From TrEMBL:
It comes from the Eukaryota. Gene3D superfamilies: Tetratricopeptide repeat domain (1.25.40.10). It holds the Pfam family PPR. InterPro entries: PPR_At4g14850-like_plant, PPR_rpt, TPR-like_helical_dom_sf. This is Pentatricopeptide repeat-containing protein. One of its GO terms (biological process) is RNA modification. Keywords: Repeat. GO terms for molecular function: RNA binding.
Amino acid sequence: MFERMSVDPNDATFVGALACCAHTGMVPKGLELLFFMTEKYKIKPRLEHYGCMVDLLGRLGCVKEALELIKGMPMMPNAAIWGASLSLAESTWTSRTCRTRSQETNTSRAVEF
């Protein structure tokens, strides 16, 4: 995607791209972008990037993965992360893919976090 651009993407470019992935439910593409951001372009993820990824995973009911991402962040979560984690709680109650007891427990932990 970025190879066709005449300039290298920066951290803001990746925030926009990850947000688009979150709104369209493109988990594999979001994970790929996060990988390219860190490995190819040597850009350290900021809270905004993590927030987009938590939002993306939460919208699709990937509660466990989102919580693991939050716990593995090298910085303390902020309001953006907590706001994105609210989608974890919502997805648990509205999505059939995340109605297991363990995921509901994980969502409760995310809200308490």
